[in-house]
Amino acid sequence: MTNDTMITARGLTKQFTVKRATVDAVTDLDLDVATGELVAFLGPNGAGKSTSLRMLTTLLPPTRGTAVVAGHDIATDPAAVRRRIGYIGQGTSAGNNQRVRDELLSQGAFYGMSRADTARRAGELLESLDLAPLAKRPVLGLSGGQKRRLDIALGLIHSPALLFLDEPSTGLDPQSRANLWRHILDLREQHGTTVFVTTHYLDEADQFAERVLVMDHGRVIADDTASSLKSTLAGDVITLGFASADDATRARGVAARVSNPRGDSGKGAGGGAGSAPVSRRDDGRALELVVDHGERVLPVLLRELDAAGAPVVTATLRQPTLDDVFLALTGRSLRDEGETTESADAKGRGDEVSSDAGSTGASAAAPTSSSVDTRTGTATGAPASSAPTSSNPGTTSSERVSA
Ligand SMILES: Nc1ncnc2c1ncn2[C@@H]1O[C@H](COP(=O)(O)OP(=O)(O)OP(=O)(O)O)[C@@H](O)[C@H]1O
């Protein structure tokens, strides 16, 4: 690991044992995150995002594998890792009756900071996170968005080089989400903090992250910039509407020939660039195609379909979304993924879990849920049921054109 590398993980794996059955939460995670990068970890419920974060933040010992985080080995020097990182887990850490500023001062004291340093830093963070007017308000009275901003301030009080955020905007309305992200980006700009964030929100990963890791079933299945992922995997999406199902049927052959002159086979359900058209409308009067250079293909399609007696009634061309990427990779839409029974089940039974197979002993306080005491950076093992479930509300990126 060089000075330019903030996280290196090799073969990081976590298995849980639930009622004698093995749950492969994370399998062979290899990761290199450069200093200053903003990386988004994207995936459906139960993909293994939080477990990965909890291993990297020393809250959960891996079953096997190694990681060096902020210059220190998670297994042999977890305390040093914790000193250098901030971790903001799911659910709010700020839930007591202390005033906002006092909460920050206590947090600084827990990190062993001097009073003067803590006061200075608290003042800076209150300003930069727009919390100054709320400094004397009890934490309990804050709104969800204000609490999340306070969480971030608490995670940053000791000026960590690396900030882990586990679904920071889940449950916030779109305006609060946008506001929160503005703060995260500002802080990063000002302090060069490396940010590693998990999210369900495709639009967030798309807009804000320099790099997107897509995780599914405990494995990283893609790792690139959002735009590269979209251009290499998804192409452009064209949706054509027809007056009748007969027209749509006639159009399929023409569309396949025009959009896929090479005759490539499709890649997965979403189709890669050059895939055969896929009808996604129940009434059969629409075709959705994923093609290279949609802006060039669309006019040709319109002409050819007209000539073939299958005139197009409506046409849309859109850039692919990360959901198209996920669909192409897995055959499933990330949007459609709800809280899986398995995921909800296992989390709800955290107390029945025999923790981990083959623990490295890195953390004596390995939690059975995602709850963390941010004051000490150690796990508290609060009931998992108190963690909010993510139902992906308010996702705003363009919708799939399918019914
Ligand atoms: N303490 C635990 N005991 C047993 N299984 C667990 C435990 N924590 C997580 N799991 C299981 O490990 C898998 C990965 O869970 P994890 O929470 O890491 O996923 P996630 O991608 O963060 O999901 P979410 O987006 O819902 O937070 C899931 O199958 C989950 O049920």
Structure description:
With 403 residues, the chain is an alpha/beta fold. It folds into 2 domains: 280 residues, P-loop containing nucleotide triphosphate hydrolases (Rossmann fold); 85 residues, Alpha-Beta Plaits (2-Layer Sandwich), CATH 3.30.70. Helix content is 33%, strand content 24%. The chain is built from 12 helices and 16 strands. It is elongated. The C terminus is likely disordered. The structure holds adenosine-5'-triphosphate. Adenosine-5'-triphosphate binds next to β1, β2, α1 and α12. The site of adenosine-5'-triphosphate (ATP) has 20 residues, from β1, β2, α1 and α12.
Question: Summary?
Answer:
By secondary structure, the protein is α/β, with parallel strands linked by helices. It contains twelve helices and 16 strands.
What topology emerges from the helices and strands here?
Blueprint: E1 5-18, E2 21-34, E3 38-42, H1 49-56, E4 64-69, E5 72-73, H2 78-84, E6 85-88, H3 100-110, H4 115-128, H5 144-156, E7 162-166, H6 174-191, E8 194-199, H7 202-208, E9 211-216, E10 219-224, H8 226-233, E11 236-242, H9 245-259, E12 286-291, H10 294-307, E13 312-318, H11 322-330, H12 341-348, E14 353-356, E15 372-373, E16 378-379
Parallel strand pairs: 3-8, 3-9, 6-7, 7-8
Antiparallel strand pairs: 1-2, 1-4, 1-14, 4-5, 9-10, 11-12, 11-13, 15-16
CATH class value of the largest domain: Alpha Beta
The fraction of residues in strands falls at 15-25%
- Strand runs, count: 16
State the CATH topology of the largest domain.
Rossmann fold
Sequence stretches where pLDDT stays below 50 over 5 or more residues: 262-277, 338-403
